[in-house]
Structures are given as structure tokens and as C-alpha cells.
Amino acid sequence: MPPIIRIADASQHVGEIVTVRGWLKRRTGKGKINFLRLRDGSGSFQAVAFLPTLGDELFDQVKSLTTESSLLLTGEIRADERAPGVPGGYEMDLRHIEIVQIAEEYPITPKEHGIEFLLDRRHLWLRSDQQWAITRVRAVVVRAIRDWLDDQGFLNVDTPILTPAAGEGTTTLFKIDYHGVPAYLAQTGQLYNEANIFAFGKVYCFGPTFRAEKSKTRRHLQEFWMVEPEIAFCKLEDLLEIEEQFVSYIVQTALTKCKAELALLERDTTLLQNVLPPFPRISYDRAVEMVNAAAAQGETVPPNDEPLPPIPWGGDFGAPQETFLASQFDRPLFVTHYPTAVKAFYMEPEPGRPEVCRSADLLAPEGYGEIIGGSERMSDPEQLLAAIRKHNLPAGAYDWYVELRQFGSVPHSGFGLGVERTVAWITGISHLREAIPYPRVLGRLTP
RNA sequence: UCCUCCGUAGCUCAAUUGGCAGAGCAUCCGGCUGUUAACCGGAGUGUUCCUGGUUCGAGUCCAGGCGGAGGAGCCA
Questions:
Q1: pLDDT of A353 strictly over 80
Q2: Which nucleotide is nearest to A316 if distance is taken from CA to C1'?
Q3: pLDDT tens digit sequence for A247-256
Q4: Which residues contact A53 (CB under 8 A, 6 or more apart)?
Q5: What is the spatial distance between Cα A221 and Cα A441, in angstroms, rounded to a whole number?
Q6: What is the reported pLDDT for A237?
Q7: Chain A span 228-267 residues with beta carbon within 7 Å of strand B
Q8: Which of A87, A207, A234, A398 sits 20 to 30 Å CA-CA off A52?
Q9: Measured at the alpha carbon of residue A175, what is the angle toward residues A173 and A179, in degrees to the nearest 5?
Q10: ipTM for the complex?
Q11: Are strands A300-301 and A306-307 parallel, antiparallel or unpaired?
């Protein structure tokens, strides 16, 4: 029996008779020659079925194959510049075929489809080249996140998904029944992270996060994955250095390990090559000035070239303003010191200027928006209690959180990075729903 | 919750002023030794989202509903 190999390893078996196992992407017939494009999960290539080589019986079997039929193909691997696929350049001269199943008529064709049609068939759509490539990039991004944090001395400490109360107290939560008492799906692990740093110094949590917002845009999901590092003895300035090292590592790792995937996605990686420290830093004050000066000049922003709206000091940036600001720099941009009023209650006010807080968002280039939100946390218990009261939050629910500041409080900071937004940015796709295998967008729970 | 747009063949779409329901792809049959979403010839394909209304006549106009897309607010 010939050895079974993966298509990704075809280049190491030139001249050998081998077997590959997979699914037929497409068959094109041309008289006495048929081309079988096969996927096996590791990549794709074509097997060339030639009537004089195979004989009538096997060639008739080849001609009976439908899209997505499952097969074992055996033949000789050879290099050929004309051979398509991923990684490409190698093909199989087919000698034998074993049909596992002739597939029924496959609904997804090489032509265009609407998004509703594709999302209804997400379980099949994942087999398509682009979705395969995006999902593989996501896995590399997730691995890079863990590798970097683990190597830098962070401890992965998991935080609960079933929680008793609001995290940040602002966004809408999914409510569930916890044996007769109300509970909520976590929208952040941050408060628990803050507890964990006092035991472990530098920690991160990494898992799904839930927001029941009625958000129906390309930048929002109901369920998304977020990594949240938290660091003791860390001021805002220290945090930004960590973030830029972290994000640069993720992007450069993806560029190195996902060349074939990004090429398949036709991603122009020029701007991604720039993603190296240091990242530019501007204050919220300066950002507002830049937006308003450009708005007065009649600046427009992609994708629809609509006019850039001006913004009063104290307001939060919308998507057009974030896109404009990010476009002014050649790499991701930190915007620091947002107004205290628009940010979460736990952010440390700037000394001598309490109307702004020691926060920083990281805006990705090319219109991908905020991929990180972070801040220095309030470390004084009295100040924190006052902030909780000011935001009309139920004080009792935060007793343990305040208590953290009563036993060895230290300056500390942390941030959250959205996995899907990062993957969408790196892969260059326009909508988050393709950056997660089974997207939960407003109004969709299946498949 | 609000604003804008859309719903016609398996898929993507067209249909003039309200006047016989159309094309490409996919599928099936035939042809071709290098295809990359092949090409050439032939064949079949409809609850025009639903309910009601106007009209001699509605895919088209009106009312209500359902489903979808994009955006706002909010955020990763």
C-alpha cells in the first residue's frame, strides 16, 4: 500500500506513488483528461486523470464524481508550474481511485452567493478556500496570543462565564436562569483579572464574551473572543509598551506563518509589515482637534466617502472618526486620556485633570477600528467607592472588587483585545462574521 | 429602538407606462489531452416572501405583516 500523505507535504514526495484522502472541490473534464481538485484540510491540489493511464473502468468512475465526493486518490506526485492549489506547484498523476461516497448535489457553487444563503450553510461554507484560510489565520493568531503572553511571564487564569452582575455596568447582558436566580453571561473577565493579579502578578483570561447589544454592523458580534491581560505595578505608559509589543508579535507571526493563506485571500500586506513598535500616541484632546480641523476642510472617509463629521469635546468617536484618525498614521494608533464621563467607572483619573482618565484605545489602520481598549485602574478604595456611587451602580455587588484595594493596593493596568477584529484586520476581510467559525450576529443562532 | 435599501428558477440577478415570467451559472446528455469560476452544442426548471386592497389585468401600485442587508447608538 502506498503511504498516505497530506497535500501540504506533497513537495516532499515528488516522484513517489502516494495516497491522499479528501474531498473533491471541483472536477473539470476535457475529453480524455479530467482534473480533480482535491482538498484534504491541509491544502489543495489537482490530480490529473488521463484515460490511457487509468483505463476505461477507472476513468468512468472519475467522470461520475460530483463536487464534495469523498475520495482516496493514489498516484505519482510531480512538480508542474501549471498546477493550481495551496501551496500549489505540485499535482498527482492519478493511477487509482477509491470512492468513499458520491456526494449529493452541493449547494455552494464557484459563483456568487448572498450572505444569508452562505451563513445558513456555514457548516459547508467553511470548506471554501477563503473561509478555510481565514479560519487558519485565526488559529495562528490565537496561538500567537498565548505564546507571547506565556513567554512574557503572564499566567493564564480563567474567569467565570456565568456571573452575578454587570462587569462594566454599561452594555446589555444576556440574562439566564441560574437555578431560580438571575445570572448573566460574562461581558468581560476584567474584574476577576484584577483580583488574580494580587495572587499571580501578571495574568490573562481568554475566552468567549457576550454582548446582547442590538448592534447590527460589520464590527459587532453577540458572541466574540477576547483576551484580557492584567498587570500589577503597571502604569498607563508601561501598558502601552506591552500592547505594542504584543500586537506587533501577533501580526508579524501571522505574516510569517500564514503566507499561503494571506496570498489566497489576496491580502496586500504592505501596511501589516509596518506593524512594529513604537506605535504613535496622541491624546484625546489632540484627536478631537485633528478630526475637527479635517472636518472643516471637508475631509471624507471610506468606504463610502461620506463627509467626516465634527465632534464636540467630550463625545466618543464613531466609526468615521476612528477611520480618519487611523488613516493619518502608518501603523496602529494609541488614543489616550479619553473623557472620564464616556469611559467605565473603574478607570484612574489623570492627576490634576480628573475630567480625563488614564485610558487608551488602540485603533487599527484601514478602517478596522478599535482592536484594544485598555486603562490604568483606580487603585484607591475611597475613590473607587465614590465612582461606583456616581455611576449609580449597586454598591453591594462590588464589595469584593473594592476590597481588592484594601489589602495591598498597587497601581495596575490591563486591556482587552478582540480576536475577531484582529483577525479581520490581518486577513483584510470586511465583516467580523467571517472571522469566527460560527458567528452569532443579531438575529442568527444557527448553525 | 431608529434611519436607508432589498425579497422573482437550486444560486446570482433582469423584466419598459400596470399588459404572455427571462438570462447567466448550477444540474442532466453529447464533444474536446492542460483545465484554473474552462469552452462548444442540446435539455428540464417558478406559490414572483405572506395577507388583504385598487384594476378588465399586479412581479410592478396601495396598506399591514414576515425575513434579510447596511448604518446609528454601544463597544472588542
A1: yes
A2: B74
A3: 999 999 999 9
A4: A93, A94, A95
A5: 5
A6: 96
A7: none
A8: A87
A9: 145
A10: 0.85
A11: antiparallel
* DSSP codes joined into one string, A373-439: EEEEEP--HHHHHHHHHHTT--GGGGHHHHHGGGSS---EEEEEEEHHHHHHHHHT-S-GGGSSSS-
Asked whether residue A119, judged by its CB, lies under 7 Å from any atom of the DNA or RNA strand B, the reply is: yes
Q: Is the pLDDT of residue A308 over 60?
A: yes
CA of A260 to C1' of B19 (A): 56
pLDDT band at A303 (very low <50, low <70, confident <90, very high): low
> What pTM did the predictor assign?
0.93
d(Cα A319, Cα A321) in Å, to the nearest integer? 6
Cell of A198: 494580587
Q: How far apart are CA A444 and CA A447, in angstroms?
A: 8
Intra-chain end-to-end CA distance of chain A, in Å = 39
Rg from Cα positions in chain A: 26
Indicate the CATH number of A122-280+329-434 among 3.40.50.150, 3.30.930.10, 3.30.565.10, 3.30.360.10. 3.30.930.10
Tell me what pLDDT residue A437 has: 94
**Superfamily for domain range A7-101:** Nucleic acid-binding proteins (2.40.50.140)
Helix (H) / strand (E) element for A45: namely: strand A44-50
| Span A100-137, pLDDT tens digits | 998 888 888 887 788 888 988 999 999 999 999 999 99
Q: How many angstroms separate the CA of A442 from the C1' of B70?
A: 13
Identity at A409, one-letter amino acid code? S
Q: Which 8-state DSSP code applies to residue A221? A: -
Domain ranges of chain A: 7-101, 122-280+329-434
* Chain B bases closer than 7 A to any CB of the protein: 1-2, 10-13, 24-28, 31-39, 67-76
